[in-house]
């Protein structure tokens, strides 16, 4: 790959953005930094403001207040076509009457991209693995291939920032996973500053350098995928990213007693009577009869999921879901008595509502 990206050398700073539609605050004092060459994924439930944030950065949406700085330049008042960004949408948005090469060439023409355009088109098609498809028309390609063309077209104009708006949502599961991994590879190879909007948590965790979780127009937490998953700062984030058990407990601040055991707590945990959020993989089960009542459970259902198994266990006052290795779960059957063991992994405790 010889093309050098124009990637935002000083990154992107979104500062205190607010955008109100009637009674809805789509962005509510929303701030986010994207470092040069970084891929940040914005994740959150439908209507939380992800697309509005991306559109505000692109210039397709005005903001009521706040500022947008790209590569050191305040672009808040600049129209979209002067912001040096390129976007890939859920719907591939290719021109149907143009070939694959024609689509990319046309984008370069519109953006007045300097240099040998034939070479630029060829390089970018190569980059997305479609070097042999230049003369095809969009309708002759699969959805995944069309989206690769859209990606090549976006990169060919050498934008400072690449914006990906649910780019994988229209694809079926297998293609989605392949293209997700490809996007990551290509983004790293080109080193382009990227904002990726998705509602799919697995997609966000796999593809991003950092994941930002939004709710009601606000950024609730941002961090590396492993941090967001293991050290959520609110119950909302813990709940939104991955599965979590909610168990009644008694917190002394840095540890809590839950199911007759003591678990360490994450910073920011509540004290007193609390709900402790524990991931299924942080629970193990040991076949046992006659264990202490507060840690005794009875298997309700075991579910085989290929690489692991989930086991639902009735415990005093409710149930827990444990994630076990396939071997560990194979000896368990509905009705079995088990000891529920909480691993020594920090958990978040929130005030019981
Ligand atoms: P989804 O995952 O469903 O696309 P999202 O997180 O991307 O959701 P946005 O599309 O940013 O959310 O919308 C945030 C809120 O702003 C929603 O309540 C939405 O209805 C509202 N909204 C967005 N654009 C407009 C508009 N042009 N006019 C009125 N309301 C809007």
How would you describe the overall organization of this protein?
α2 packs parallel to α4. The protein has a six-stranded mixed beta sheet with strand order 6-7-8-3-9-10, with helices on both faces. The chain has a five-stranded antiparallel beta sheet with strand order 13-12-11-14-20. The termini are far apart. 24% of the residues lie in helices and 35% in strands. The chain is built from nine helices and 20 strands. The radius of gyration is 24 Å and the shape is elongated. The protein is of the alpha+beta class and 353 residues long. A hairpin with a 3-residue loop joins β11 and β12. It has two domains: 12-230, 3-Layer(aba) Sandwich (Rossmann fold), CATH 3.40.50; 245-351, OB fold (Dihydrolipoamide Acetyltransferase, E2P), CATH 2.40.50. The protein binds adenosine-5'-triphosphate (ATP). This is ABC-type quaternary amine transporter. Residues 12-241 form the ABC transporter domain. It is an enzyme of class 7 (translocase). Keywords: ATP-binding, Nucleotide-binding, Transport.
């Amino acid at each position: 790959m010889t093309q050098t990206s124009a990637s935002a050398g000083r990154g992107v700073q979104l500062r205190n953005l607010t955008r109100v539609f009637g009674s809805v605050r789509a962005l509510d004092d929303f701030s986010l930094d994207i470092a040069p060459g970084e891929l940040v994924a914005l994740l959150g439930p439908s209507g939380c403001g992800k697309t509005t944030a991306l559109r505000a950065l692109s210039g397709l949406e005005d903001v009521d207040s706040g500022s947008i700085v790209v590569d050191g330049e305040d672009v808040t008042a600049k129209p979209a076509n002067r912001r040096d960004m390129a976007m890939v949408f859920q719907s591939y948005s290719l021109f149907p009457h143009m070939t694959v090469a024609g689509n990319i060439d046309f984008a370069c023409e519109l953006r007045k991209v300097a240099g040998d355009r034939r070479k630029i088109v060829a390089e970018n098609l190569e980059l997305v693995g479609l070097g042999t498809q230049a003369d095809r028309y969009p309708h002759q390609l699969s959805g995944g291939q069309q989206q690769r063309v859209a990606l090549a077209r976006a990169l060919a104009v050498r934008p400072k920032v690449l914006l990906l708006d649910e780019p994988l949502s229209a694809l079926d599961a297998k293609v989605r996973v392949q293209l997700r991994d490809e996007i990551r590879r290509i983004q790293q190879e080109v080193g382009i500053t990227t904002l990726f909007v998705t509602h799919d948590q697995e997609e966000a965790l796999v593809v991003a350098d950092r994941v930002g979780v939004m709710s009601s127009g606000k950024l609730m937490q941002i961090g590396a995928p492993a941090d967001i998953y293991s050290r959520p700062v609110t119950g909302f984030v813990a709940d939104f990213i991955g599965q979590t058990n909610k168990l009644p407990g008694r917190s002394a601040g840095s540890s809590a007693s839950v199911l007759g055991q003591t678990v360490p707590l994450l910073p920011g945990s509540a004290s007193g009577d609390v709900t402790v959020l524990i991931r299924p993989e942080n629970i193990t089960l040991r076949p046992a009869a006659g264990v202490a009542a507060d840690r005794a459970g009875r298997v309700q259902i075991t579910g085989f999921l290929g690489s692991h198994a989930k086991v639902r266990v009735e415990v005093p006052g409710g149930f827990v879901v444990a994630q076990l290795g396939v071997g560990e779960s194979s000896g368990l059957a509905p009705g079995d008595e088990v000891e529920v063991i909480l691993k020594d992994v920090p958990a978040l405790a929130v005030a019981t509502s």
